[in-house]
Design goal:
Elements lengths: L1 E3 L2 E4 L8 E6 L2 E5 L13 E5 L6 E5 L17 E3 L6 E2 L2 E4 L2 E6 L5 E5 L6 H12 L5 E7 L5 E7 L4 E7 L7 H13 L5 H9 E6 L4 H6 L24 H13 L3 E8 L6 E3 L9 H17 L22 H9 L2 E8 L15 H18 L8
Parallel strand pairs: 4-6, 14-15, 14-16, 16-18
Antiparallel strand pairs: 1-2, 2-5, 3-4, 5-11, 6-10, 7-8, 7-11, 9-10, 12-13, 13-15, 17-18
Helix pairs in contact: 2-8, 3-8, 6-8
Bound molecules: zinc ion.
Zinc ion binds next to loops.
Length: 380
């Protein structure tokens, strides 16, 4: 904790990240701390206390060296005084510094890169979903910090669906998405969920990277390893999180997979596929595009015009999960990306992209899967 005239900034809590370098008048000079044993940084999360009614300037001077500096253009920071509703606050980016201007309306205000999803909330989610009829909960592995890798299994159908999220721990919208998808999938009154559970068995890892989540990392685990570059050859020393999930996938097979992420720079929700894998087939590609286009019809919060470039044939990086699963299992494999900033097609000046929209996109993805699942072959 660093205190000036009764105003304090602290980050020593679950997913906290900031360093206080100094203060000049009402301006605080801050820096985002790098992921442990890594050069990546962009996630910030801190508490500001004792500044009710005081106009403050919070200047993050090392923003220009962050992993995705293009993510700061038109970005607005998230702030909350009740830790439930997160609103966007005035933010500007110039000369490598991100400057947040805020006059707190409460004695304590939390600021973050995106609405946080704490490990305590993760445990609440797992406990709540695991207690519902037909859901099995297993601890399938342990992280380097000794946290559990949780797997939830539900449904009775012959097709094998895998959802996994938050390989990159700072992409908290991915676990908000999971909460929306899991709440719907376990709703006994939801016809889409009932139909999906009759036709498929779902294997769901709501958080692939508990250590990075708790440590306040952007992109890596406790050893500074980017888990989404480990899928070709995961090891117990570097990436036990990926190793335990891939071993279980080898046992179940995979027919359809979604890897859920957030993108720092692109102000849209989109998916990426596996076009460059050596084993690519026309049918795999057709089903991938069918899912993508169906999802775009299910919700105006998803679109197909903006996204990543496509790898040329044979040039896919098989260390990335979506490519590895499509190659390994011949399945339909997708990377879903949600914005940190905003969906520019449907902007919300007050909240930007939000936990609520992430959860609703999780529900919409189930609508799209429901519509195409009969065409997805069962190999698992
Ligand atoms: Zn990511």
């Amino acid at each position: 904790m660093t205190a000036f005239d009764g105003i304090a900034i602290s980050s020593s809590f679950d997913s906290g990240n900031i360093a206080v370098l100094g203060r000049e008048g009402n301006r605080f000079d801050l820096a985002i701390v790098k992921d442990h044993q890594s050069d990546f940084y962009q996630w910030f999360h801190f508490r500001l206390t004792g500044a009710k009614g005081v106009p403050l300037v919070l200047r993050i001077g090392n923003a220009g060296g962050a992993a995705y500096p293009e993510g700061w253009a038109n970005y607005r920071a998230c702030a909350s005084s009740d830790r439930e509703t997160w609103r966007r606050v005035q933010t500007r980016y110039a000369d490598g510094a991100l400057t947040i201007e805020i006059t707190p309306e409460a004695d304590a205000v939390w600021l973050a890169y995106f609405a946080p999803y704490s490990m305590e909330r993760h445990h609440d989610l797992v406990a709540r979903i695991a207690g519902r009829p037909g859901v099995r909960h297993e601890r399938i592995g342990e992280t380097l910090d000794g946290q559990d890798i949780d797997l939830l299994t539900l449904g009775e159908g012959p097709k094998t669906v895998w959802f996994y999220a938050r390989q990159h721990p700072g992409e908290t919208m991915a676990e908000w998405w999971m909460e929306g998808a899991l709440e719907r999938l376990t709703d006994p009154h939801d016809p889409v969920a009932r139909s999906l559970r009759q036709r498929a068995t779902f294997h769901i890892v709501p958080n692939m990277n508990p250590d990075g989540s708790r440590r306040g990392h952007l992109r890596t685990n406790a050893a500074g390893v980017n888990l989404n570059r480990e899928w070709a050859a995961p090891t117990a020393e570097r990436s036990p999180e990926v190793l335990c999930v891939l071993q279980r996938m080898d046992q179940t097979g995979v027919d359809f997979a979604m890897d859920v992420h957030g993108d720092e720079a692109i102000p849209h929700a989109f998916i990426a596929g596996f076009e460059g894998i050596p084993g690519w087939t026309e049918e795999q590609g057709r089903l991938y595009h069918l899912f993508r286009d169906t999802l775009a019809r299910c919700t105006p919060d998803f679109q197909t015009r903006h996204g990543y470039g496509i790898a040329p044939k044979g040039k896919a990086n098989l260390a990335m999960s979506t490519n590895q699963l499509a190659q390994r299992f011949g399945c339909v494999s997708t990377t879903l990306e949600m914005p940190f900033k905003e969906n520019d097609d449907l902007p919300d000046p007050e909240h930007g992209w939000s936990p609520e929209r992430s959860m609703r996109l999780g529900r919409a993805c189930l609508d799209a899967l429901h519509q195409i699942l009969d065409e997805v072959p069962a190999r698992g």
